[in-house]
Amino acid sequence: MFVNPKARTWTCSSTIDVEINSFHCSLPGYTQTPLLDCSSIAAELDLRNVFLKDESTRMGLPAFKILGASWATYKAIKKLLQLPPTVNVQTVMNVIAQKHQSLTLFAATDGNHGRAVAKMATMLGIQSQIFVPQYLNKPTRNLIENEGARIVEVLGDYDEAVIRAKATAHVLGSDGLLIQDTAFDGYEDIPQWIVDGYSTMMYEADSQIYNITQARPDVVLVPVGVGSLAQSVVTHYKSQGHPCTIIAVEPDSANCLQTSLKSGISTSVSTKDTIMCGLNCGTVSSIAWPILQKGIDVSVCVTDVEAHESLLQLRECQVVIGPCAAATLAALKKVVRGKSTAPGLDKDSVVLLLGTEGIRDYEVPTR
Ligand SMILES: Cc1ncc(COP(=O)(O)O)c(C=O)c1O
């Protein structure tokens, strides 16, 4: 566990585009995802409320990622085709159909992001190529393929898949568009739009929580892969004028954020297979790092067994979600039971777990 006491009072300004929410509302299949009240867990941990934002059905996909992929793709295509900023999605689709059908979207993924990009490409009537690490299992590849993508297997890990996707998109010139959810030197706009797109989840959660409690979340737990979602969470909650503690959760086998926070500089780690596949990333996004370094209050690592046990506990409370999502509860329990100092976490706290994915098959881990 790593605690940054200075994050409690650190604030930032939000630059989120007010149009994002109405853009998402205009997409086929958009509805707010549910907020689940985990009252028995709140009672067990002696907290006022524990809510879980259930992203297991987000616009027809079992994860939150389409929020970022859709907004970033829309913004990137408008920029590439030099369309006026005010054109809507339907107009973008018409322009593509008339003269840009050769456009191809590229992305690297360990599951959910690639599927979201593939779905966006199909919706827009264009092709997609999704680069996957060698270890990615067959069922996950099939799900991406079923959204209409061509899968390209990379001999290496997620970081290697990002390099290959970028290089292949580059070869196509203006017909190749990389929609990647992690930033690196010279590639910042699209990842930032992805981060911005995720904000819809927090706006929904805030109003849902307010309707029940007339309060705002005091503590938010966010699962971390490359840290883009956490960047969105920190930017949102540290710019609202209400003190909010952000707890970042990573697999112990892929803890690039915690390693970086401890050493004070962004540090890549080599990763091992985990049931929390969406979090299996070795490098923090370059635009996320400066924000997470200042704005993450607590960083917690959890094991596969802990994530699995929390998933089973949530299932007993009728909350059916996947391991990346359940990792947030595992981390909350570690912080509460370990008597670690998490500022703002006490019996009056309203806690929000970001339940980022739905249930999926995985090999049950053993102790
Ligand atoms: C289900 C799930 N949760 C959380 C994350 C973490 O998001 P990020 O990589 O932006 O940290 C991912 C990333 O793909 C994911 O698939």
From TrEMBL:
A Pfam family for this UniProt protein?
PALP
Provide the leader sequence positions: none
> Which residue ranges does the record assign to the Tryptophan synthase beta chain-like PALP domain?
28-353
Q: Which PANTHER family match?
A: DIAMINOPROPIONATE AMMONIA-LYASE, PTHR42937
Descriptive protein name? Tryptophan synthase beta chain-like PALP domain-containing protein
Organism field: Cudoniella acicularis
